[in-house]
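Student:
Attend to each token:
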Amino acid sequence: MNHFEPPMHWADHEDIAMALYEKFGDDFTEAKIYRIRFTELIEWILALDNFDGTREQSTEGHLEQIQAKWVYEWRDNQ
């Protein structure tokens, strides 16, 4: 965990999406991002540096928002 940045939680959709984009870059296009299974997405989020949350705290709503923000982040970098 990076002690210089505040921890991310499930409601930090944009921060999580930015971290996922930084981690995966252009490996995932818009179509691929929307095809990611939530079970996989949860694992990737839980593995992020500075993420401070549990699997039990995740909701479908959070995961949908994170996917959407990840797509926006990907688009912004094209």
